[in-house]
Design a protein that fits this description.
Elements lengths: L1 H16 L9 E10 L6 E11 L4 E5 L6 H8 L7 E6 L2 E2 L5 H10 L1 E5 L10 H5 L1 H5 L6 H10 L15 H13 L5 E5 L7 H18 L3 E4 L3 H4 L4 E6 L2 E7 L3 H14 L1
Parallel strand pairs: 3-8, 3-9, 6-7, 7-8
Antiparallel strand pairs: 1-2, 1-4, 4-5, 9-10
């Protein structure tokens, strides 16, 4: 009951902050399983995972190597098909979509931020940001683009190419690219992994700002308790299953929980 009341209060706060509109999007899974191979050699990467990434919230996904974190992200993002179960993005069940519709959903309704930035070296920062819209044959929403550029402090870097940017600036461009299409959800896969501590902290603060200022839904895979502490909640995976959910995480609390889970294994 307390968690429900807190979630409702946060939704109302988002409505006030964003002109009366509640956050849209989010994603969830229902009894999601993913297996690789067949027979005795089959690997069970995910097993009966039911989890939600609520709209307008920042969720961190944690667990030891091999726990299924990246597989979960790939399935929810439509990059891999589940072996069984259901995945919903913004109310749309991915299993009902054709390959063409799934490609369109990934391009227009899901944002991605990777550890390696994945920017095209021959394009300017602005062109990298608007690339998903260019591929869709659309022009950018000027107001949305200006807002994202302002929040991510990229106004004086739009004409620069990736080689002329620092690592932190490159990741900000990647984050802007993920946000400019107004996606249902943004997936960040170890977004600070290639950054120094100062740049990493900056990127995490900007992910937090995307949630608080834009009502964006964010799901982040991370090994770092400090990074996870920026989230509204942490989902812990082990052996392909959800084993815990921590609301309002702190770095110390996350580290203690990781140690407890390690002691059980």
């Amino acid at each position: 009951m307390a968690e429900t009341a807190r979630t409702q209060a946060q939704s109302h706060a988002h409505q006030r902050a964003h002109g009366g509109e509640a956050p849209v999007g989010g994603a969830r899974t229902v009894r999601l399983s993913k297996r690789y191979g067949t027979g005795d050699t089959a690997v069970r990467a995910l097993e009966e995972v039911t989890v939600a990434f609520p709209p307008g919230r920042f969720t961190a996904i944690m667990g030891p190597s091999g726990a299924g974190k990246s597989t979960l992200m790939h399935c929810v993002a439509g990059l891999e098909a589940p072996s069984s179960g259901q995945v919903f993005v913004g109310g749309q069940e991915l299993g009902t979509l054709s390959d063409r519709a799934l490609t369109r959903l990934r391009r227009e309704r899901v944002g991605f931020v990777f550890q390696s930035f994945n920017l095209l070296p021959t394009l300017t920062a602005r062109d990298n940001i608007t690339l998903p819209l260019t591929l869709a044959g659309k022009g950018p929403d000027r107001e949305r683009l200006d807002t994202v550029v302002r929040i991510l402090r990229l106004g004086d870097r739009l004409s620069h190419r990736p080689a002329e940017l620092s690592g932190g600036q490159r990741q900000r461009v990647a984050l802007a690219r993920a946000l400019v299409t107004r996606p249902e959800i943004v997936f960040a896969d170890e977004p600070t992994g290639n950054l120094d501590s100062r740049s990493g902290s900056d990127v995490l603060g900007l992910l937090r700002a995307a949630v608080d200022d834009l009502g964006q839904t964010v799901a982040m895979v991370t090994h770092d308790p400090v990074a996870a502490a920026h989230a509204d909640a942490v989902v812990f995976l082990a052996d392909g299953r959800v084993v815990d959910l921590m609301p309002e995480p702190t770095a110390a609390g996350v580290l203690d929980r990781i140690r407890e889970l390690g002691d059980r294994s």
